[in-house]
Amino acid sequence: MPFTGGDETGVEVRILLVEDDRRVAAALSSALTRRGYEVEHAAGVSAALSAAPSDLVLLDLNLPDGDGVDLCRELRRRSGSLGIIVVTARGEERDRVVGLRLGADDYVVKPFSMAELQARIEAVLRRATQVRPERNLICAGPLRVDVSARTVSVDGREVALTRKEFDILFSLARQPGVAVPRDRILLDVWGTTWADGHTVEVHVASLRGKLGDARLVETVRGVGYRLRAE
Q1: What's 81's domain CATH number?
Q2: What DSSP string runs through 47-90?
């Protein structure tokens, strides 16, 4: 779920996946990529510390070249706004307490479902944006979305949207040019994936009409919708 920020075309949310089991890493990377994230895999502590900057870290604690707890502490020392979710088989209460005290935003015990992980990622990223005031303006082609003011303009013309319409646009605008699944939009806007099959379609149709250019929000057959990036 790319959030806002960076350049004028928007920037993808980058996830650093720190996981030594390559089969688990491959499966998670694939699932996250399908959901529109940019994923970098690090198989250990040293690789994680030398990885490119990211918006969120999924951190296994059992690593071959060091303790994930120490890595969590170092990552938090480097950045107070970085989202960190511990994803590990260590399910004891003391492990959870230590991880959270060292700076993790959340703690997920294996095995878990992608729906659960997705919801936790969403929640952590939402909290992270609250301490990133520079990431309040999303720009994609003629579209400008001011997240703080909840205002939208197209070619300088202000567009009045309902709360749901704005939230749908925000869900798409966080990753311009990337197909966003209907379930992801439902989770972003309604907080659930259980809804009438036409709920999203009806609101998207209204959103397109208000934007004045139906081509800005493209339908991706069998997947969901995509905001045109240029």
Answers
A1: 3.40.50.2300
A2: HHHTSPP-SEEEE-SEETTEEHHHHHHHHHHH-SS-EEEEEES-
